[in-house]
Amino acid sequence: MTPDWHEGHQEGFFDNLPPLSKRVPIWHQGDRENQTIGAISPWLGIDNVECEVSAFTYLVKTSHTANCLPSLSSLLSLWAPWDDDLSELVQFHLIVFQWDAYKDILNTIQDDAVNMTDDGNIPAENRHQTFVTIHYLEASDLIDTIGGLNRSLMALRADHEELLERFETYREYTGRIMEYIASRDPAMAGPFGLLLRPEDLAPERTQQGPVDR
Prior knowledge:
2 domains; alpha/beta; five-stranded mixed sheet
């Protein structure tokens, strides 16, 4: 369910709406095991959901400098499994398709950060930070993207057919030119591949049996 923007609301209603994207820092420890993106599930409140997390989310991985949601057409190539290790060189993006689930995730992150480090003094070389950006994506955006990709595919197919037709035309013209040149200069028949080879003859002419006398 998405918020209804058209109905009348009290003053300040839009100020209280959650953002459609939220970047959350993740502190993790380099000398510990199980420092994966899936290990932050309890902080997001999705570690004990009744259905598969993939039923309403999609996880991708980008460079640590890419804060915005990548283009929808590139999401498949950026997909990341939940057992991927956390790293300061990458950033994860959790895309949520259900509005209520998205709000629950934001409400669960009360301190706006995920801290997976041990208590006490941790050496600086073992204390790392990365980010997960949580995005809400409405189904209508997917429909628009799929429609645009389909239009692009149809256009590419039309261009491909046109190029094939041009290729056949140019090949025919080139063949005629080569035949004309070879007719004027027989020495060019070989380089142009216009000489008749034995295997080009009909089988009955190349594999004759004994002649009856």
